[in-house]
Write a structure and sequence with these properties.
The protein has 116 residues and is α/β, with parallel strands linked by helices. The protein has a single domain, classed as Rossmann fold. It contains 2 helices and 4 strands, in the order βαβββα. A 4-stranded mixed sheet has the order 2-3-1-4, with helices on one face. A hairpin with a 6-residue loop joins β2 and β3. The model has no long low-confidence stretch (mean pLDDT 87). One of its GO terms (cellular component) is Golgi apparatus.
């Protein structure tokens, strides 16, 4: 006899990237708890697992800080990622060009990633 939870789940790691202050942590906790929570600037990263009803997939979201000094380290998180969620604060018109450049840098890195 087995239960649904006894089945091994597939793991999927998703990176949440974007400029500092773009709303990554707010989005992470909205997805996790389905409510808006007060957050502070992320120094480093936050990691949360999402419970997905009726799914054999365990989803882990990595919210990685978006400060300029942190962005060069994003590439070290790519190898284990099943996907990237790039968050843009469309209200912050002054930084849209900077966000575009960072997103371009992320996608450029993936294009040159060696295939297995």
């Amino acid at each position: 006899m087995g239960t649904r939870s006894s089945k091994p789940q597939k793991q999927a790691h998703v990176l949440m990237l974007g400029l500092d202050g773009s709303g990554k942590t707010t989005l992470l906790y909205k997805l996790k708890f389905n409510e808006s929570v007060w957050t502070v600037q992320t120094v480093g990263f936050n990691v949360e697992s999402l419970d997905i009803d009726r799914s054999s997939l365990a989803l882990t979201l990595w919210d990685i800080g978006g400060q300029r000094k942190m962005r060069p380290y994003w590439k070290h998180f790519y190898p284990d990622a099943a996907g990237v969620l790039f968050v843009v604060d469309s209200w912050d018109q002054k930084r849209l060009e900077e966000a575009r450049k960072e997103l371009h840098r992320v996608t450029k890195h993936h294009k040159h990633k060696p295939s297995n």
